[in-house]
Structure formats: structure tokens, C-alpha cells
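Input (structure):
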């Protein structure tokens, strides 16, 4: 997400490099690029005008301290303005003084309300809250069944009265059940339409009157871009929203919706959907999103993803294995499956500062290579997985593995050679301490960090020449990072 916007902002600062200060003359070129970048990202025009005006006012004449170049200062100003436009800080979900907290989910048909309701239910469950989801969409027959199916998958209860009852009656009955049975949160999934109409708005008002929600969350498909501003304004004026859930953000390389909603409605984005999986819902943090847009990564979100998947005892165990060079193919397979649970390889890599320049083709190659290695490991015996030395000593074993997984013996030879190099390198790095790493590995992501042996089978550093994971100039103060094993 935001790849196009990130690239355009990168172009915007080029004209300021080599300048002594930011002036009204030399900043105009950068501001024109920023304006074009935002418009191309489908950001609402009034938001673009205000954004550019604020950046100009703050950037021109800004003090550039020693050791900081004008282009770095400009990026700092843009970052601060992006954070401000998107809301300043994280806005958590409301928690009523008297349970249950009632959350009403609103939006157009196709925005992903039902899925977002289930994702929010799982998020609350992970926080130790007991939620009840209510299926009040009686117009789309599959909606209630979809919610029940998702509820069964995540272990969150679902209530509905079927397709014959009125939505406001279903919501009120769900609220009564939540009070009687001690649920602390009620999530009401409502019906949408293909476009805003009076019937839908009147129904939303009736449901709202029936349950008196603490939150009215507008579910917005980020792919609609600038239209998100008009949609948000219409819902807010007629129903009154308290926040938004931005869905399908993983499929939007532009990002206009994220930059328009808060400015137009005055209400914050509270959650973002970053994938199809029911786990793919994150609290929205404007400062982290601004960093992603400017290609600075998002280490905090990456750490949070890791903490959900990795136990501290496993990290310590893996660190010890790396230090002793006893890391084996079973451990490597465990790491690959961990990466899959956390998301795509490309998505994770771009959260690491300085990695936003990795070519998408290279990332796809890396993902394909992981699948290839997983197939090879699947053809190994238990002894071969834990003792890679057996493969090095006996070519017949490598030929059998190649035959079993459908690849050439040379492919297995290459993976084994790269694995041995990687293991030795990671042993040195973990003893030395401190390198950008992946969770559970105590520091070290095979094949994607600059200057280290490639991911088995990829060779080299696994990165395009000239950009081996090096941080851009503006990020040099953050160059030394802890591995996840040390966080």
C-alpha cells in the first residue's frame, strides 16, 4: 500500500538536495510534486490545498540545524503534516462505563462490513473482551450466514432473529441478550446499499435510536479513493459517525482515502484492514502510517505482529541455536511458517526502515524461493532436517530429495550451500549483537539484509545492486537497529 505515493514523495525532495536552506524559491518545485502526488493518490482537492499550504508555511524559513539537510527538514515537515491530517494519534475503540459497549457498523454494500465486524470481534477477543456480534443485515441473505461462519472460525458468538424481523428489533434483542449474559461489547452488523439512499439512512437512524451506540463506525473501502470523502460526509451529516474502519488497504497503492477521511468528517480512522484473513485488522496509528508513506518503514507494527506470534522462550531458544550454529532446516521451516502467519514477505520487508526500495519482482522471487525451499525440506527425512551435514556428505541424499520435490539436484546443492553460509554468517551476527532481524530468529532475515549471504537458493544479498538494504540519507540516525531477538 502507498507505493505510488511513497515514490512521488521521494521525487519531491530531490530538488532540495544540495541546497543550503529552504526558501520560497527552491521549495516551490517540491511543493508542486507534493501536490501532484496527493492528487494522483486520489486525495480530496480541499484536503490537498490545505496540506500544501500548511507545508509551505512550516517549511519556508524553518531552522535547519547542523547535520540536517534541507531535504531532510522538508521530509520532517511533510511527515508532521501527514500525521496531523490523519488525526495526530491513535484513537482507541470506546469503552462504555456501563457494559456492554455498543458498536454500530455502517457503510455501503461491498465495503466489507461483515468481515470487518468479525475482524473487530477477534481483535476484542485478543484483548480479553467478550463480544457478541449481531447480524442485522436482513436484505443480503448470505450476510447473517457469513457472520455466523466467521464467528465460528474465531470463537465469537453471533446473534440474529433471521430475515423476517426488522433490523432495529434484532439490534435491540441483541442488546438485551448482551446485558443478560454478561457480554462487554456488542457489534451490530447492518445492511448497506450500492449507493446512499434515504431508506438506508432512515433505517440506520432507527437502529441507532434502538441501541444508543457508543461508537458508530463507518466501514470504507479504501479503493474508492476521493469518493471516501463524500461518503464520510454524507454518513456523518445524516447518521453521525464516531470513527471509520478503512478496509482493503493492502490493495490500494494510492492512499487517498486514508488522507481524506479525518479532514472531511473530523472523525478518526480507528482501524485498518490489511488483508483478507480475519486476523488482518490493525489499530490505526497516523504517525506509523505517515512513516510508511514516506518510506521510513513501520518497525513498531512489525514488532507487535511478532509479539502476537512468538513466545519469548522460543526467541531465546532460537538465539542460542544461532550462536551455536546449530540452526537447522526444521528451524528454517518454522521461521518460514511464522512469516506466512504474519503476512506476505513483501509486506513485512517494507515495514523495515530502508527496505521500501526493494524491487517487487525481487520480493516475489523471494516468496517463490521460500515455497521451493519448503518443498525441498518436505522431502527430507527427520535426520536430514536436523543434521544438514548428512546432505553435504552424501550426494545420493541430495539426489533423492530433488527427485522427491520435483527440482534438480543442482537446486538442492545450491540451497544447501547457501544455507551453510547463512548459518555461519548469522552465528557471527548474533554473537556481535544487533542487526535488523525477523521475529524468533534473534536478529537476521536470510537473504534480504545488505551484505549478508542470500536466502538459500537465491545467492548474493538477494537485493538489487546499489540498494542492498541501505537506509536513505534521511534515515541514517536510525541505521543501527536491534534485532527482534533483542526487542
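Output (sequence):
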Amino acid at each position: 500500500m502507498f507505493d505510488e505515493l511513497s515514490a512521488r514523495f521521494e521525487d519531491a525532495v530531490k530538488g532540495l538536495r544540495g541546497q543550503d536552506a529552504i526558501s520560497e524559491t527552491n521549495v516551490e518545485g517540491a511543493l508542486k510534486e507534493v501536490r501532484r502526488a496527493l492528487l494522483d493518490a486520489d486525495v480530496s482537492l480541499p484536503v490537498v490545498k490545505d496540506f500544501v499550504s500548511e507545508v509551505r508555511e512550516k517549511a519556508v524559513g524553518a531552522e535547519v540545524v547542523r547535520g540536517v539537510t534541507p531535504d531532510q527538514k522538508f521530509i520532517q515537515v511533510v511527515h508532521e503534516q501527514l500525521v496531523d491530517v490523519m488525526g495526530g494519534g491513535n484513537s482507541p475503540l470506546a469503552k462504555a462505563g456501563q457494559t456492554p459497549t455498543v458498536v454500530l457498523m455502517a457503510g455501503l454494500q461491498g465495503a466489507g462490513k461483515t468481515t470487518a465486524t468479525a475482524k473487530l470481534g477477534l481483535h476484542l477477543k485478543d484483548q480479553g473482551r467478550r463480544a457478541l456480534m449481531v447480524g442485522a443485515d436482513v436484505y443480503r441473505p448470505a450476510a447473517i450466514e457469513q457472520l455466523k461462519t466467521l464467528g465460528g472460525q474465531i470463537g465469537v458468538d453471533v446473534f440474529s432473529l433471521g430475515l423476517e424481523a426488522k433490523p432495529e428489533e434484532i439490534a435491540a434483542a441483541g442488546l438485551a441478550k448482551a446485558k443478560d449474559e454478561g457480554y462487554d461489547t456488542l457489534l451490530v452488523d447492518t445492511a448497506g446499499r450500492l449507493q446512499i439512499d434515504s431508506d438506508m439512512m432512515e433505517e440506520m437512524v432507527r437502529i441507532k435510536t434502538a441501541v444508543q451506540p457508543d461508537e458508530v463506525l463507518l466501514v470504507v473501502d479504501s479503493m474508492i479513493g476521493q469518493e471516501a470523502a463524500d461518503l464520510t460526509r454524507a454518513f456523518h451529516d445524516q447518521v453521525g459517525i464516531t470513527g471509520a474502519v478503512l478496509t482493503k488497504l493492502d490493495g490500494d497503492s494510492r492512499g487517498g482515502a486514508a488522507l481524506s477521511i479525518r479532514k472531511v468528517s473530523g472523525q478518526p480512522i480507528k482501524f485498518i484492514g490489511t488483508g483478507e484473513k480475519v486476523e488482518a485488522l490493525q489499530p490505526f496509528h497516523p504517525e506509523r502510517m505517515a512513516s510508511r508513506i514516506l518510506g521510513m518503514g513501520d518497525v513498531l507494527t512489525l514488532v507487535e505482529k511478532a509479539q502476537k506470534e512468538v513466545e519469548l522462550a522460543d526467541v531465546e531458544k532460537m538465539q542460542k541455536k544461532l550462536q551455536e550454529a546449530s540452526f537447522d532446516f526444521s528451524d528454517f521451516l518454522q521461521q518460514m511458517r511464522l512469516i506466512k502467519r504474519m503476512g506476505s514477505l513483501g509486506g513485512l520487508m517494507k515495514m523495515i526502515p530502508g527496505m521500501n526500495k526493494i524491487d517487487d519482482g525481487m520480493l516475489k522471487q523471494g516468496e517463490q524461493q521460500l515455497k521451493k525451499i519448503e518443498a525441498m525440506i518436505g522431502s527430507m527425512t527427520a535426520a536430514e532436517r536436523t543434521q544438514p551435514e548428512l546432505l553435504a556428505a552424501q550426494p545420493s541424499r541430495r539426489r533423492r530429495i530433488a527427485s522427491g520435490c520435483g527440482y534438480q539436484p543442482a537446486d538442492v546443492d545450491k540451497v544447501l550451500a547457501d544455507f551453510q553460509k547463512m548459518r555461519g554468517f548469522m552465528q557471527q551476527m548474533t554473537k556481535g549483537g544487533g542487526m535488523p532481524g525477523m521475529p524468533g530468529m534473534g536478529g537476521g532475515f536470510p537473504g534480504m539484509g545488505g551484505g549478508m549471504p542470500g536466502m538459500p537458493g537465491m545467492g548474493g544479498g538477494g537485493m538489487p545492486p546499489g540498494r542492498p538494504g541501505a537506509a536513505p540519507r534521511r534515515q541514517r540516525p536510525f541505521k543501527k537497529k536491534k534485532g527482534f531477538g533483542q526487542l
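Notes: Strands lie at 101-106, 131-135, 157-159, 185-189, 215-221, 243-247, 269-273, 281-283. The chain has three domains: 3-85, 101-294, 307-486.
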